[in-house]
Each structure stands twice: as structure tokens, then as C-alpha cells.
Amino acid sequence: MGFLARERQVAPPGWNRWLVPPAALAIHLSIGQAYAWSVFKTPLEKSLGITGTQSALPFQLGIVMLGLSAAVLGTTVERRGPRWAMLMSLIAFCSGLLISAAGVWAGQYWVVVLGYGLVGGIGLGIGYISPVSTLIKWFPDRPGMATGIAIMGFGGGALIASPWSTSMLTAFGATTSGIGKAFLVHGIVYAVFMSVGVLLIRLPSPEFTAEKVALLKDRPKANVGFNVSANNAIKTPQFWLLWVVLCFNVTAGIGILEKAAPMLVDFFKESSTPVAATAATGFVALLSAANMAGRFVWSSTSDIVGRKNIYRLYLGVGALLYLVLLTVGSTSTPLFVIAAMVILSFYGAGFATVPAYLRDLFGTYQVGAIHGRLLTAWSVAGVLGPLIVNAIADAGKKAGHTGPDLYATSFYIMIALLVVGFIANELIRPVDPKFHEPEVADETDRPSPKGDDDATVTKWNEAEAADVAETAEKEDAEGVVKK
């Protein structure tokens, strides 16, 4: 198809690179609806006669499929280009919502699981990784900020979807008919909104090379890796160390996010200032805002202080904040809320910063595919975090425990996981040269590999040479090996 051909996705000369983040946001704000699934849980349970565990299944399957589809299709996304990937995400995600609508109307919950979890989950995975490598190529000087803008949209999608879904259920009714209509409206409106991203996204043009050289001259201090393919990346210890870092950082954050409201009520139930259930709902909204803000603020900061240093903050300070919650969290509601908000900001920031970390280690060649494979860590954490917190809390209730005692063991586990993640981050070093791609491999990463004239090829070579030379000059105490 001509419209989806990679060469048709290349930006014309003079294209404004700041149009690319809005294209990414159009996708991420839409698929971020997944974080608002809890709005449909109770209505589905009442209208279809299912349990709480069953009503959580579409969301859980969706997150699992996000990681799996991103891992399996990551290389295809790189080869076909962002426009193809965004269109496939639109088709899968919105089809999942429409299938869910049909399933609710038919009273067949397994169809909802199939639609939202399986089909929609594939759309989540493709859509999540589709703009990443493109943004990094357009913003070589500020990769953390660029990916932070887009991935902030995924965290903020629930801030739009949650009140919107609630208002539709109020208007249509929390019945099978009303829920089906809400899914139908979601599917149609998100398809229109995501199509904006499909039409707007562009790959950098060969003419952007000269601008790239100028941008890199003023870029913040960064250690940019040589290019490594996705197949070689998973053979390196750096990939698996970063997998541990992401998995444990996400586990620690999602453990609070998934059980935020009842956790706050339990912590202060027997104190002099108990928290009402309605106030706990506001706490969830604050955590969502912190999750979204952290994705932009902390990932942008990583462009200045470096990726390893920022993960030291996420993991080290995160462990200390869990210790604060464990020791004095029940003495002050504001202290508990602030500490939890910072932890959730680190949770969101971990997602936003990791593409830039991958770029530093493995270069821009197939970084989207590598990112997709790394997201299997999210699939594991999405099951592990809630399982740890809920299983231990349920066991504590059976043993007669109350208040903070329900979560003490969980918090100790989270602290241990964050410490392990901190150590894994410290062990990350530059990738061994034996995994580097030959220089000719860069040709496949260029926006217009066919039809470049000799002058353009020369410009690309000069740009890459300047990039490598500056990297060597800016090596710091992190132990970067000159090459």
C-alpha cells in the first residue's frame, strides 16, 4: 500500500519536528484508556453476574498481551515504519472495544475478555512502541524529554477516559445496554482521534542530517551506544540487567497503584484521623496525576543528569520512601500521600526513561524492537505487583491483622526488589564491541536509504562521525570505553 510505504512516511524538507510528539500523544492518550478499566469493573460484575477476579481479567490479559505483542512485533514495527504501526494499533485497539460492546450486549463475558484483553491488548503493545524510535531520531539532543512527552500520554489517558466513561455510564445506564454503548462510543471516537496520529507521523528526512549535527553539538552530556540489533541486544547482559531494573521498578509502583484506595483507608482506619472511602478516591486521582507528571519531569531531567543517575533516584529513593511508609506512614496522612505520589512518579518515569536508556546502550538502530522485547518486564510486573500486595493482605486479614500490618510484609518485599534493581543498574556497562553492528547497518536506519545522492551520504557519514567523536570527548566517570 502506497500510503503505508516507508518512503511515503519521510518528512518533506523543513518539516517541524515538534509535530511528531502530538502524533505520538494521539496514540498514547487513546490506548491509555486501559488504566481506566476499573470504571467498568463494578457495572460488569452486577450486570453479568461475575466476580471481582473475573472482571479484572480483561485488563490483566491486555497488559500481558501488551508486553508479548511489543516483543514479537517490535522488529516488524521498525521495518514497516511508525505510520503502519499506528494504523495497526488503531485497528486492533478499537476493534477490541467494538468486540467488547458486542460481547456485553450478548451477555457473553468471554467475548469481552477476547475483545478487550486479547485483540485490544495487541493494539496496546503496537501502539505503545510505535512512536518511540521515531521520536528518538527526531530528538537526538533530548531523547528523554521526547519519549517522556509521548509516554506521559499513556499515563494520562485515564484522566480523560475515567470521567468520560463514568459520565457515559450515568447517561446510558450501568446495564448491559449502557455498558455496550459506552464501549461502542469509545471505539468510534478513539479511532478518529488515533487517525490524527497516523496522518501526522513522519520519519526524519535526509535534509535533517545537517540539523542533527548542529543539535548534537549542544546536546547534554550523554553516552550514546553504537548500533546493536534487537537479536544481539537480548544476548547482552545489559539488556537483562535493564529488564530487572524495569520489572522491579514497575512492581514496586503498581503494588500501590492497584490497591491505592483500600490501602489508604486501612492504614488510617484505627487512627485518630480515619480516611473516608470518598477521600480515598481522590487519592487515586492524585496518584494518577503523579504517574503522568513523573513521566515527563523525571525523564526530561535524565537528559541532564544521565540515565544511570536518574534510575539511582527512582530505585534508591523509592526504597527509602517505602521505608518511610513502613515506619512512620501511619502517623500522618499528608506524609503518606506525598510519599506514595513520589513513588508513583518514579513508577511512571521508569517507563518514560527506559527508551532513552536503551538508545544510550544500543543506539537508534532497532531501538523500537529492543524496547518491545524489554516490555515483557511490564507483563511480569503487572502480575507480580498486585499478587504480592493482595495475597499478603488477604492472608493478613485471615490471621486477624489490621491497619498497616496488612502491608508490612509487602513493603519489605518492595524495598528488597528496589535494592536488587538498584544493584542491577550499577552493574550496567557499555555494550561489548562484539555486539556492535557493522557501520553499513546504519544505512537501514536512515529515513531514505534508497535514492540518497553522494552529497547526502557524505552528510550522513559526517553526522555519524561527529556523533562518535563527541561521544568520545564527553566520556565521564561512568566507565565508558572509548572506541
UniProtKB/TrEMBL annotation:
Q: Does Membrane show up as a keyword for this record?
A: yes
**Does the keyword section mention Cell inner membrane?**
no
Write down the superkingdom of origin: Bacteria
Q: Which UniProt keywords apply?
A: Membrane, Transmembrane, Transmembrane helix
- Give the record's membrane topology: Multi-pass membrane protein
Query: What are its GO cellular component terms?
Result: plasma membrane
Q: Which residues cross the membrane?
A: 18-37, 57-77, 84-103, 109-132, 144-164, 184-203, 239-257, 277-298, 310-329, 335-358, 370-389, 409-428
Q: Which GO terms describe its molecular function?
A: transmembrane transporter activity
Stretches assigned to the Major facilitator superfamily (MFS) profile domain: 1-433
Stretches with biased composition (Basic and acidic residues): 436-453, 471-483
Chief location category = membrane
Q: Where is this region: Disordered?
A: 436-457, 464-483
Localization, UniProt = Cell membrane
- Tell me the CDD domains matching this sequence: MFS_OFA_like (cd17353)
* Pfam families recorded: MFS_1 (PF07690)
Q: Which PANTHER family match?
A: MAJOR FACILITATOR SUPERFAMILY (MFS) PROFILE DOMAIN-CONTAINING PROTEIN-RELATED (PTHR11360:SF317), MONOCARBOXYLATE TRANSPORTER (PTHR11360)
What name is this protein filed under?
Nitrate/nitrite transporter NarK
Please name the source species.
Lentzea flaviverrucosa
